[in-house]
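Sample 3 of the quickstart, ligand 5-amino-5-deoxy-1-O-phosphono-D-mannitol:
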Amino acid sequence: MCGIVAYLGPKNPLPIVLNGLQRLEYRGYDSAGIFLSDGLTRQTTKVVGKVSELRNELATKNKFDAQLGMGHTRWATHGEPNQLNAHPHVSNSGDLVLIHNGIIENYGVLKKELIERGYHFTSETDSEVLVNWIEEIKKTSGVKLGKAVQMALSQVVGAYGIVVHDNSNPMELIVARLGSPIAIGLEKEGFFVGSDATPFLDHTREVIYLEDNEMAILRAGKDIQVRQTDNDTLRTPTVEELKWNLENIQKGGFPHFMLKEIHEQPDAIRNTLRGRLFAEEGKIQISSFNEHQSVFTQARRIIIIACGTSWHAGLVGEYLIETFARIPVEVEYASEFRYRNPLIYSDDIVIPISQSGETADTLAALKLAKKAGAFIYGICNVVGSSISRETHSGMYTHAGPEIGVASTKAFTTQIAVLSLIAFKLAVIKETLSPKALRSHLIELDKVPTLMEQLIAEKEQVEEIAKIIHTATNCLYLGRGYNFPVALEGALKLKEISYIHAEGYPAAEMKHGPIALIDEAMPVVVIATRKGHYEKIVSNIQEIKSRKGIVIAIVSKGDTSVKKIADYCIEIPESSECFTPLYATLPLQFLSYYIAVLRECNVDQPRNLAKSVTVE
Ligand code: M6R
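Result:
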């Protein structure tokens, strides 16, 4: 979704803002813009397309020593991607400038009122309405910008992360958030603002995260004041230290972030398990479980809420927790859960899963469950994200930054965390013998090393990609633990290569999808030895009888499937519960190589955003 970068201070803001916008490209966008000011000269530049085009456009303009820069990448919500709709937006008087991430839901009403008062609009955006609404309040109430922003936001319905500037006070910026993240980087005499901290990672390690309903007044060379937007309560902000470094957010020799992130999975899982898994001792150490022992002992039901890939990980979690801990689990799309008046009890544990920790629907569903009295135990990757801050407790996946829009290492590390949770709950509920537990933990401990061996065999997947990359449809089938993997494989393919793909439980094939199968239809079947093997072999035979092209993911040393499938990819033999951790990898590679062959933009697929911060 939209990306925000701003800088106010003694350095040249132009490279800071442009490089910052480039770092936010992974969020997804369709136009970009920048505002520069030295107090006298003001320059706004906007383009449809990429930040590189904005850079080219700026090269043709007059240079001056700006002291303030505000940049934006826009992911269209209200109005098509064009120059007029791109940010920054300037108020009618020309004094106020605003960049905005989010949606102002009541913008229509506000716009109508402003038009009646003589305002005109050049764009179709809700953001242009907001900047003029602030201007109108400032003018009619005779207040300073900070107060005007506060008053305007009290009348706004929706979500926002905004940065506002007033030409009459050139060394000040007002920043506010509700639902859309805002990080503020601190240096001796200046401030950086970002939708996350990546734009200023190379400038400072000190960061403040705004909470919902908070605003900050930044004065260059002076101070920062953080206050509530709905009252005047001041907060002394906690300055946090950034742990991620520049290397983490660069490609490190890989042509795409996605490929780098696929390769990072063994290490990412090592980081997930470190300090938590003690395989030889047959122990799992999760500090948050000790702190909330009674909640986990008494839990009658677990509800997992998530979107996209994280929802698929949640489905694997359901199999794991129900199998090992015998606690009923429901897995819900956050967007459905929040609007269907769900039954939530005080002895429910609700687990929101989110890589970014900023997905609007997951955040809203979490808040709903919290209000209903459930205990909220989050699984997030981004430390300090909105979801992680709203939960009662939880675990980080420690996968490191995931920049590619297609989620890869986030998925497998989420499954690793869910495995730890399932086994820990099994210990609490006494549903697994110590011997069986130890044997599973020893297997889990070996996952990163076996994943490395699997990654080393990726060329075989590339060869298959060469054969099927021109397909227009593709079917993914799996059973049990591998049904969610089939869904994930299909999602990966469609989002980055734009091939229509469907994931199905293999047995459901006969209830409809079988009608699609012909000699042009590649069918990816996860057919590992542990878990319904004979049944899946029959499914493969049914596909072959209809001339479908079968690409089977099989356990090492398989002979039966190899005789009937067109292509086989071997993965390590494992207990059924760990097959998703292996079977996912070749599917990630398959979608990656196919997308590259089709010359698609792998890391920034069309229409998609990395974190979906609007509903
Ligand atoms: O940050 P989140 O895990 O909450 O994001 C959820 C989905 O938007 C995300 O998984 C999306 O489906 C990915 N593009 C899938 O690769």
